[in-house]
């Protein structure tokens, strides 16, 4: 399974650079879950739903976190009300189970506006999007293409792929995921029909194992998703392992709007 970035000397994927040091994801989860909420830095109106940038701190670490409260979610016709923050959290757990950590550490906790998702804010240049990336990012983007298919991401815009100062790509905004019906809408279609690299299939196989056993992941999925949504997730996993090719666009809309 992939556990490092493709560049020479890269840091393992289960680490993030925070407070001038490399910190493992579990430690960041603890910071987000239990750290003292200091102040709101800004209201971040990056999408249709309310989000705010908050500062959290404990005895050793501090960070900025994107807080998306349940109360700030705009009702949608095709997703159950008040579930988008849960899907943000589950997307992180699936990314973690794959061993790829494409999604910044994310937890669910209470905040100033009630329960919601708390996700580590990744330092990045907002002018750089998916559309700015060259061929040196192919391996990282292939992970995204597989991940988005597995979680059935209905909203992979170009601006939802962030490049950090260390050359690592991160994915954000995963509220529209895990629907039981096919809804994959993404800007990353350049690999359609190509074989999925064996190294990525190894991660998918690990995910299948966690879905089929009494794991923390399967427990959280049962807590927040319907039986149909969980069955559809497992079916996508099994389908990819049986026919290991990047998916083609489906019959319905295949790209988000706007694309950035």
Average pLDDT score: 93
Can you write the helix and strand succession as a string?
EEHEEEHEEHEEHHH
Count, helices? 6
What structural class do the secondary elements suggest? alpha+beta
**Low-confidence stretches at least 5 residues in length (pLDDT < 50)?**
none
* Spatial extent as radius of gyration: 17 Å
Helix percent reads 25-40%
What general outline do the C-alpha atoms trace? Answer: globular
What strand line-up does the widest sheet have? 3-4-5-7-6
User: DSSP strand (E) fraction?
Assistant: 15-25%
Report the count of strand segments.
9
Whole-number total of structural domains: 1
Terminal CA distance reads 31 Å
Note the main sheet: 5 strands, antiparallel
Itemize the secondary structure elements and their pairings.
Elements: E1 15-18, E2 21-24, H1 25-34, E3 36-43, E4 52-57, E5 62-69, H2 84-98, E6 106-111, E7 114-120, H3 138-151, E8 161-163, E9 169-171, H4 198-211, H5 216-224, H6 227-242
Helix pairs in contact: 2-5, 4-6
How would you characterize the overall build of this protein?
By secondary structure, the protein is an alpha+beta fold. It has one domain (15-242). It has helices spanning 25-34, 84-98, 138-151, 198-211, 216-224, 227-242; strands spanning 15-18, 21-24, 36-43, 52-57, 62-69, 106-111, 114-120, 161-163, 169-171. The strands form three sheets. The chain has a five-stranded antiparallel β-sheet, sandwiched between helices. Strands 1-2 form a two-stranded antiparallel ribbon. α2 (84-98) packs antiparallel against α5 (216-224). The longest helix is centred in the C-terminal third of the chain and has 16 residues, at 227-242. The two termini are 31 Å apart. 37% of the residues are buried. The model has no long low-confidence stretch (mean pLDDT 93).
